[in-house]
Amino acid sequence: VGLLIGTELIWKEIKKSGKQLIITTLTQSLGTFFIVSLVFAVVFYFAGIPLYLAFIFGGIALATAPAPALSIVREFKTDGPVTRTLIPMAALDDMVGVVVFFSTIGIISANISEQKVPIYIVLF
Fold first, then answer.
1. In which band, very low, low, confident or very high, does the pLDDT at 79 lie, cut at 50, 70 and 90?
2. In a domain, 4, yes or no
3. 63 occurs within a structural domain
4. pLDDT for 78 beyond 90
5. How far apart are the first and last CA of the chain?
6. How far, in Å, CA of 53 to CA of 59, rounded?
7. Among positive and negative, which fits the CA dihedral 105, 108, 112, 116?
8. Residue 107 class from Cβ within 10 Å (0-12 exposed, 13-18 middle, 19+ buried)?
9. Could you tell me if residue 56 is inside a domain?
10. Which UniProt keywords apply (predicted)?
11. Is the Cα dihedral 29, 65, 104, 38 positive or negative?
12. Residue closest to 96 by CA, chosen among 11, 25, 4
């Protein structure tokens, strides 16, 4: 699916709505991460569950499935401003989700581990 999304990206289209697209994607993705993490942190605090799990759930909440959007666009051969925004946004949303999730996992594992974790393991 990632490859199909990549073939739909046209850089001229992204440049036209680039700033709006990036701001919307980051706001939506990071907003979801922070709200889900906050809600789970409150619940976990009162339940006595370690709070770092709330951030893991926040990272999991970023996972989206771009396949339904792509299949609808291809099946109905839609074209318009929403379609031209939807596909790049789905791709950027997945990229942000992967970066946030693995950064969160790396930071949490480095903080709860009793051994030192080299920075290259956290980053790569």
1. confident
2. no
3. yes
4. no
5. 23
6. 10
7. positive
8. middle
9. yes
10. Membrane, Transmembrane, Transmembrane helix
11. positive
12. 25
